[in-house]
From TrEMBL:
SMART domains tied to this protein: FCD (SM00895), HTH_GNTR (SM00345)
Keywords per UniProt: DNA-binding, Transcription, Transcription regulation
InterPro entries on file: GntR_C, TF_FadR/GntR_C, Tscrpt_reg_HTH_GntR, WH-like_DNA-bd_sf, WH_DNA-bd_sf
Top-level taxon: Bacteria
Official protein name in the record: GntR family transcriptional regulator
GO molecular function, one term: DNA binding
A family per Pfam: GntR
HTH gntR-type domain ranges (all copies): 1-67
Length: 217
């Protein structure tokens, strides 16, 4: 297996909870499971540490990070609701024809997944990141783009919750944002982004987080 293949294989095990949240990760065990040497597994875990899916503990090796608890999830969405509706409005004001073309192309590049697995959802997680980063770029704000990327929220959110309907609903909400940006309507773009984030949090994610009983750590 190539290094990128090993990275994707280990990532899928974490996202699908085959390696449970908070569980210690055995480099040698993963190497045997994947039929590779320990070196690409170590490289994969180093990349996954950057994405905050694993954490390296001194003298103890790697452990998968816990799922977002209720307070962490609330903090993430408070942060996103502060910056992303503003970014959508600015994108509607500032996007030129090239930028609008990039947005159309992004929306045409992703279909809704039909299974509740990471393999089915990884295209959507990649689209989710590209879409929100692109809106920040069209807003002309490098700081908003960097702030969004640093949260790795797309991975943490999809790791918390897979559902066969979430892909379709997410894409519908992205299309509403896109339509408002393409129409050059800042108010509608801001409202569509706010609706997208509030729907994701209040209707899809917070109930799952509360049902899990995860307490702040």
């Amino acid at each position: 297996m190539l290094t990128d293949d090993v990275h994707e294989a280990v990532k899928a095990l974490i996202m699908d909870h085959a390696i449970a949240p908070g569980e210690r990760v055995s480099i040698d065990g993963l190497a045997r499971q994947l039929g590779v040497s320990p070196t690409p597994v170590r490289e994969a875990l180093a990349r996954l540490e950057t994405a905050e899916l694993v954490v390296k503990e001194p003298l103890r090796g790697y452990r998968t990070t816990p799922l977002l608890n209720r307070e962490q999830l609330a903090d993430l969405y408070r942060f996103r609701l502060l910056i992303e509706p503003w970014a959508a409005a600015r994108a509607a004001e500032k996007a030129d024809e090239r930028g609008r073309g990039r947005l159309r192309a992004e929306m045409a590049a992703c279909d809704a997944p039909h299974e509740a697995t990471y393999d089915a959802y990884k295209a959507l997680t990649a689209h989710d990141t590209r879409f929100h980063v692109l809106v920040a770029e069209l807003a002309g704000s490098a700081q908003v783009r960097l702030a969004f990327e640093r949260t790795h929220c797309h991975l943490h959110i999809f790791r918390l919750y897979y559902d066969s309907g979430i892909g379709r609903r997410t894409l519908e909400e992205h299309r509403a944002i896109t339509d408002a940006v393409l129409a050059g309507d800042p108010g509608a773009a801001e409202a569509a982004m706010r609706t997208h984030l509030e729907t994701a949090y209040y209707e899809r994610l917070r109930p799952v987080s509360e049902a899990s009983g995860a307490e702040p750590t």
